[in-house]
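for the recovery benchmark. tokens below, seq after
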């Protein structure tokens, strides 16, 4: 099954636009009216709605991932990157999505 992505609020919207043009199912926190909510609320939303979450906020979401796992909760995966140019992020995410599916990424952290 294909991965559906949800991008954190600090991810440039150009990444969303470029990946949509490539056929990726992708949303941005701002589109959902969730800007300004806590990281925990973002991950809960992503988990509830089956989105793999893409963020540059590695330390905070690593801690949230650990909390989820320790509590026996599940999420659809986390994709981490250092801040990238839009073109590099689109290239890396496209390559990642080409070879992974929802089942492989669930409850895991991935670095691109």
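predicted aa per position
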């Amino acid at each position: 099954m294909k991965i559906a992505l949800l991008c954190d609020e600090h991810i440039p919207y150009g990444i969303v636009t470029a990946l949509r043009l490539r056929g990726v199912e992708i949303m941005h926190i701002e589109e959902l009216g969730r800007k300004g909510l806590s990281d925990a609320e973002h991950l809960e939303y992503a988990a509830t709605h089956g989105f793999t979450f893409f963020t540059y906020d590695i330390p905070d979401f690593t801690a949230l991932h650990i909390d989820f796992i320790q509590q026996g909760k599940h999420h659809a995966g986390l994709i981490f990157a250092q801040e990238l140019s839009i073109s590099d992020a689109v290239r890396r995410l496209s390559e990642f999505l080409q070879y992974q599916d929802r089942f492989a990424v669930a409850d895991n952290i991935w670095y691109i």
